[in-house]
Hints:
Blueprint: E1 4-9, H1 17-29, E2 35-40, H2 42-45, H3 52-69, E3 77-80, H4 87-95, H5 100-104, H6 107-116, H7 122-136, E4 142-144, H8 150-166, E5 175-177, H9 210-219, H10 233-244, H11 247-258, H12 264-291, H13 293-322
Helix pairs in contact: 3-12, 3-13, 4-7, 7-8, 9-12, 10-11, 10-12
The structure holds adenosine monophosphate and tryptophan (TRP).
Tryptophan (TRP) binds at residues 6-10, 41, 44, 131, 134-135, 143, 145, 149, 152.
Amino acid sequence: MNKILLSGIKPTGEPHLGNYLGALKNWVALQTSYRTIYSIVDLHALTINITPEELEHGTFDLAVDLLALGIDPKRSILFKQSDVVGHTELAWIFSCLTPVSELERMTQYKDMAKEKRGTSNAGLFNYPILQAADILLYKAEYVPVGEDQLQHLELSRVIARKFNQRYKQFFTEIKPVLSETVRVMSLHDPNKKMSKSLGPKSYIALRDKPDIVRQKIAKAVTDSLEGDTTLGGGHNLLTLFKNFGPSQRYEEFERQHALKKLSYAELKRELAEALIAFLAPIQERQAYFEKHPAEVQGYLAQGAKRAQAIADKTLEEVRKIIGLS
Ligand code: AMP
Ligand code: TRP
């Protein structure tokens, strides 16, 4: 129960089922087995074009969503990254240990840079250094994330090792914690992962109302019966059903799929209803927290205070180790 587990999520749009199955479900479940620290990483959000209003509202809405999902502020430290002094300072120290060549290898950066064609900013490049600081500032050992973050976590391990080699053994090795479903694909384009940046057609948001869920699932792309049934949209829908539908029914669908006799219309109808049933109680709790903004802000303030106490201690030790004290 003394092991520290930490993760972060960007307040850059509504959380969706990819975030939930890849990471947030674990965030909630692991609260009983670890000392859990969860951060809304608003400084990371600055790497993309985001207006001050979007950032402020996005941060509040995300806090609401996390509380509605079952993050318990009495058990977990839930805080906003920018409320704690020290993340950027440790990131600077780490940036002086990180080879540029390591950052250049990051696929998330390469994808972004390609998309932005020459207008990419230095924050996007340094992004994984700040992420390493988020984790190591709390000396966290376990980090629950989706598959797309594994490369960033590997870099965090490299940075910790560089620090330990250059100065002294101080940071422990971090370990990624993966969920059962590490990668949920887009409903619209099953070759890409479900993502906020692909637009609402690609995902089911935790906030989507029943009619929207039905529409989005009805329009989801499925594979042809002749096509590769292991990777396509149909397989993605089956994975969603596995997570949210009754298991016996899932097994029937799976069998029909293997025999290429699955009716996607039927699967979609039942999947939409299963999702609606899953989302209903979450949305009820969202509505409660929306009506009690002071309570939400209070949890974040309390979380920041608890996080700051840990961060201060680590940073003080780090400063001493590297000769800044
Ligand atoms: P982000 O919204 O990019 O801050 O991601 C928050 C968490 O959700 C990270 O741990 C991601 O790895 C995870 N995640 C995001 N999209 C997906 C997806 N399509 N499938 C599985 N996990 C995901
Ligand atoms: N980069 C992560 C993402 O895009 C978010 C993140 C920031 C994070 N800091 C972190 C995840 C620390 C785990 C630990 O999803």
